[in-house]
TrEMBL record:
Tree of life domain: Bacteria
Protein keywords: Transferase
Molecular-function GO terms, alphabetical: transferase activity
Pfam family, one: Glyco_transf_25
Protein's UniProt name: Glycosyltransferase family 25 protein
Glycosyl transferase family domain location: 26-200
Length: 278
């Protein structure tokens, strides 16, 4: 009887609490040098909630000449998107890869990567960790999305959030996601060269080889800085588009990619959450 009780105590001691796990999850914030007010706002929130955040100096795409862009071919990008690349998109892409590189170099098991127009909250880390625990594999869970069309629930987390995949996309936004070390290493290889905007490329688990999911509800809100985007506004995207007939390759790619997305979502089977008490 005493031995049985002692074993239970040891087993419980081996299971770290959510608060202890949260202390070991670093948040990487992508922030441009010319946007110090965004970083200051997040530092204040991090201090309020007792979080550890690390600044990733964002790459300003407007300062890089087209001939100096690495892992990028303009012709291939136009083929897949039907328009030219915006300088801000290139900077965003390279900045996220820089964040992934720094995370992998840190030796940490998991990290949350976010852009500086997202607000922190006191439940972000526990809910993000629960989302990761509810699914399997080398994985990434998007914690913020602009749209979820044809959402297929796959699991329910210990925090009562629903995790799944979408039948239709792109879902938009790479503003906040949690990723484990193995998945980050794969992304650093599979996301090169740059063929698509980062937010589009990130959610294509069927292409990256990373099990990719989304939460049904956004786990973080956007800050007031969201309206002042540093990547590009609608008018800039329209100006970069080619004539409709010259965009046929992009339409064909999107059609094929949509079929792959359907297959990727349909094959995902519901997963059971194993609680720490079992």
């Amino acid at each position: 009887m005493i031995l049985e009780r002692a074993n239970r105590i040891v087993q419980c001691a081996e299971i770290p609490s959510a608060d202890i796990l949260a202390q070991h999850v670093r948040i990487y914030v992508i922030n441009l040098d010319r946007s110090p007010e965004r970083w200051e706002r997040l530092c204040g929130q991090a201090a309020q909630y007792g979080m550890s955040i690390t600044r990733i100096p964002a790459i300003d795409g407007s300062t890089i000449l087209e001939c100096d862009r690495v892992d990028f071919q303009q012709r291939q990008f136009v083929y897949h998107n039907g328009r030219k690349l915006l300088a801000g998109e290139y900077g965003c892409y390279r900045s996220h890869l820089l964040a992934l590189q720094q995370f992998v170099a840190s030796g940490d098991k998991m990290a949350i990567i976010m852009e500086d127009d997202v607000e922190l909250n006191h439940r972000l880390i526990p809910r993000a960790l629960a989302a990761m625990d509810s699914v399997c594999g080398a994985r990434l869970v998007k914690l913020v999305n602009h749209r979820l069309v044809g959402f297929k629930p796959i699991s329910e987390t210990a925090e009562s959030d629903v995790v799944g995949r979408c039948m239709h996309g792109p879902q938009g936004s790479a503003a906040c996601y949690i990723v484990n070390r193995k998945a980050a290493k794969r992304l650093l290889v599979s996301l090169k060269p740059m063929l698509l905007p980062y937010d589009v490329a990130l959610e294509r688990g069927w292409s990256t080889g990373v099990e990719t999911f989304s939460t049904l509800e956004n786990l973080a809100d956007f800050s007031p800085f969201r309206a002042d985007t540093t990547i590009g506004k609608r008018v800039h995207y329209r100006a970069a588009k080619r004539h409709f007939l010259l965009r046929l390759t992009a339409h064909w790619f999107r059609t094929c990619d949509q079929l792959r997305r359907w297959a990727y979502t349909v094959k995902a089977k519901p997963q059971l959450v194993v609680s720490a008490e079992r």
